[in-house]
Amino acid sequence: MALIQAIVLGLVQGLTEFIPISSSAHLVIIPWVFNWKNPALTSLTFDVSLHLGTLAALLVFFASDWVRLIRAGFLSVWERKIGRDNGRRMAWFLVIGSIPGAFAGFLFESKIEDLFHAKSIHSSSMIAMAVIIALLGAALFLAERLAKHTREMEGVSFKDAVLIGLAQALAIFPGVSRSGSTITAGLALGLKRETAARFSFLLSAPIIAGAGLKSVIEIAKNVYNGAVAKTEIVLFIIGFIAAAVSGYFCIKFLLRFLQKNSTNIFSYYRWALAILIVAVVLLRR
Fold this sequence. Notes:
Elements: H1 2-18, H2 23-34, H3 44-61, H4 63-79, H5 86-116, H6 123-146, H7 158-169, H8 178-188, H9 193-224, H10 230-260, H11 264-283
Helix pairs in contact: 1-2, 1-3, 1-10, 3-9, 3-10, 4-5, 5-7, 5-9, 6-8, 6-11, 7-8, 8-9, 9-10
């Protein structure tokens, strides 16, 4: 049963990390709704494994982009020049845009973990998450309806990188969604839907990698000390693979979907999910 649950959560992580409906919320909601009590699957370690899986999907899907951006970034440092080279500009925009999220994680990550990675999650925390999910859905809906989505990736500016980076910092709260907040900010700034999603995905990689590296070091120490059972390691690996595979195909799907479709369906989904959470809380009282 634990193996099936690990696969399900891995698939859910891969699907919801990039679609703007909040992966962190779903990883809390699904075990909570189905009353899954396996501590390994609700642990921060398992959560890290799933996020590393989606990081792998990002690295593979955008492999050519990463090679180009890393090369451009190093050349800009070596030559001490950025100029009008779009690759160099984009490399530095990703660095700059990652700073707010890194600070938010450093300052508030442990407090958020205490609320949503505990063995028993309080109903008030779930209600708060439902409100966040609904509010971000409303923000996404307004950004879709009010902004003109005409700007390409080449038109992304320093200001855009800062504002979208600040939006990404909000993703520390379960229910906001990293892709949800950054795509919403991108749309509000006038980026095309596909462009907003592509920049969102690229921007998420440094944050996931940084947080993942920090957590992997801690996990390695626990494995070395025998604090993590071998059976749990298997679950982490299975979850990682499921998240990586589903994440890769989800990126491919969403970029194609946004070429011809609006993001409204994701707002509707968020509102329905918020209602479901509140209903379950009320039924359990």
